[in-house]
Design brief:
Blueprint (H helix, E strand, L loop, with lengths): L7 E3 L2 E3 L6 E6 L4 E7 L3 H16 L7 H17 L1 H12 L3 H21 L7 E5 L2 E9 L2 E5 L5 H14 L3 E5 L6 H12 L7 E3 L4 H10 L5 E5 L2 H12 L4 E5 L5 E4 L5 H13 L11 E5 H17 L18 H16 L3 E4 L18 E4 L6 H4 L6 E7 L2 H9 L3 E2 L1 E5 L3 H10 L4 E4 L14 E2 L2 E2 L7 H4 L1 E9 L11
Parallel strand pairs: 7-8, 7-10, 8-9, 10-11, 12-13, 12-18, 13-16, 15-16, 18-19
Antiparallel strand pairs: 1-2, 3-4, 5-6, 6-22, 11-21, 14-15, 17-20
Helix pairs in contact: 2-4, 2-6, 3-4, 4-5, 7-8, 9-10
The structure holds nicotinamide-adenine-dinucleotide.
Nicotinamide-adenine-dinucleotide (NAD) binds next to helix 7 and helix 8.
């Protein structure tokens, strides 16, 4: 077992919390404590913000883009070299399968490489306003960024924020989710090893209600980059409004997966399994509502339920496991509550009522891949984010109805359309109110492709060139070019 990091990282130093407080962090799949981590408080946030400000006002914001780019590439390389260690730590702390953690660490590497390149292509524009004034714009860093991230993709979510923020010359205070503090601390350590100066990336694990709140309210933080639940994002936006800091929000989802009768049904079944059961359904972009054309419903439902039952559930460290544990017993209990609610609201349980696990695992933290058929889209289970391995099947009669049901939720993060008709695929994709739509593919997030939400799924786009807008201010420089004295008062 790899060493468990246990301290805060502030100003380039590993430290205990000022209060001396610690909290236990767990391996949910085995129901075991993994270690005890320093628990930051508001006083530690103050010190971390001061360290980040000092680093920002020092050389960092003015470091040559090529140098920042080299550091990001070096960090990417170090992460790549530590993939096995990081993936094991992530898998143990989160309960998701190690092979999925490996894939996510590779995405983090690709994200750092993407923004290492972008650092050298941060362009402004020039404009001749009239013969007497020429202007150009500069993209300057926003300043100190407070990054608050969730537990479902701990390392990858940290990289999604750290990479564009550093590429554009910002410094950061990073708060990992309380349940998964470990790999964020390692990311901070590796950044130092890569040559990122002390104070540029600070890591403060601790409870959202204290550390996250302190960050959202802090006058020394210029921007909050948040990923998490819609209700938390709303609260952060309200708090941040008091200091008018910039805010970007990547929030929850209730994404549709539309299967038309003309689709390749085998491909749709396999792709739809991935779209919901990856990460045990604990994905913001989980396509948790499958909408199926009337003509294809019975064939799709039976093939999908059969395959869902065949997914191996078990030890996250085993390569054979397809679905690991959930983040905690408490969360698994909440997910079981949703399943009960779905059945009470008229759904039929097509898969998910049996769970057999090997020794040493905490069965209370697992939920079997669950399929609830015949649910109306206004049922609570179709409107609320379950965040577990639970999917509903709802029928539709025609394209118009499919689009109507797909859009009939308060979220708008992602969608997938399965069809053999290319024109229909694009037509439907244009009508869906969400930040990303896959046509005949379950994948909706790649480094380089904008990722973010419509509606209550938030605002801002990560993972792409658009993310540079989230971390920069545009400054206009105006130069008078007339040889004559400019005399607007005419005196
Ligand atoms: P959460 O909102 O409970 O917590 C997210 C982070 O916010 C954690 O670090 C938490 O400690 C902190 N926090 C909690 N209360 C806070 C407060 N009052 N002020 C400031 N910070 C606070 O979310 P979670 O349960 O960790 O993650 C799951 C959620 O994240 C789901 O809704 C999921 O859809 C969403 N998510 C969205 C994306 C996306 O890109 N859109 C990606 C991953 C996860």
């Amino acid at each position: 077992m790899t060493t468990v990091p246990t301290q805060l990282l502030i100003g380039g130093e590993l430290r205990d919390a000022q209060s001396g407080a610690t909290f236990a962090t767990f391996d949910p799949a085995h129901g075991a404590e993994l270690g005890s981590v320093a628990q930051a408080g508001a006083a530690d946030v103050d010190v971390a913000v001061a360290a980040a400000r000092e680093a920002f006002d020092g050389a960092w914001a003015r470091t040559a883009p090529a140098k920042r780019s080299r550091m990001l590439n070096r960090l990417a390389q170090l992460i790549d070299e530590h993939t096995d260690e990081l993936a094991e730590l992530e898998s143990r702390n989160n309960g998701k399968t190690k092979w999925q953690c490996v894939a996510e660490i590779k995405v983090a590497v690709a994200t750092l490489e993407l923004f290492a390149g972008a650092a050298q292509h941060l362009y402004g524009r020039s404009h001749v306003v009239n013969p007497a004034v020429v202007t150009y714009t500069l993209r300057e860093p926003v300043g100190v960024v407070g990054a608050i991230i969730p537990w479902n993709y701990p390392f990858m979510m940290a990289a999604w924020k750290v990479a564009p923020a550093l590429a554009t010359g910002n410094t950061l205070v990073l708060k990992p989710a309380t349940a998964t503090p470990l790999t964020a601390i390692r990311l901070g350590e590796l950044a130092l090893e890569a040559g990122v100066p002390a104070g540029v990336l600070n890591v403060v694990p601790g409870p959202g209600a204290e550390v996250g709140e302190a960050m959202a309210a802090h006058p020394g933080i210029d921007k909050i980059a948040f990923t998490g639940e819609t209700s938390t994002g709303r609260r952060i936006a309200e708090t941040a409004a008091k200091t008018l800091k910039r805010v970007s929000l990547e929030l929850g989802g209730k994404s549709p997966n539309i299967v038309f009768a003309d689709a390749d049904l085998d491909a749709a079944v396999i792709g739809s399994l991935w779209a919901i059961y990856y990460s045990a359904g604990q994905s913001c972009e989980a396509r948790s509502r499958i909408l199926v054309a009337d003509e294809a419903y019975d064939a799709f439902a039976s093939a999908f339920a059969e395959k869902a039952k065949a997914l191996t559930i078990g030890d996250p460290l085993s390569d054979d496991t397809k679905v690991g544990s959930l983040i905690s017993r408490a969360h698994a209990e909440k997910v079981r509550g949703f399943v009960k609610m779905g059945v009470e609201d008229g759904g039929e349980l097509l898969a998910g009522d049996g769970l057999s696990l090997g020794d040493g695992l905490d069965a209370d933290a697992f939920v079997a891949p669950t399929v609830i058929g015949g649910v109306s889209n206004d049922a609570r289970i179709c409107q609320e984010e379950v965040f577990g391995p639970v999917v509903t099947l709802t029928r539709f009669a025609d394209e118009k109805e499919a689009i109507g049901i797909a859009n009939d939720v308060r979220y708008g993060l992602a969608a997938t359309v399965w069809t053999g008709d290319a024109a229909r695929g694009h037509r439907v994709a244009q009508r869906i109110r969400s930040g990303a739509v896959g046509i005949n593919t379950p994948f909706v997030a790649f480094p380089g492709v904008p990722f973010g939400g419509f509606k209550e799924s938030g605002y801002g786009r990560e993972q792409s060139i658009e993310a540079l807008d989230l971390y920069t201010e545009t400054k206009a420089i105006l130069q008078g070019t007339s040889p004559k004295t400019v005399n607007p008062f005419g005196i």
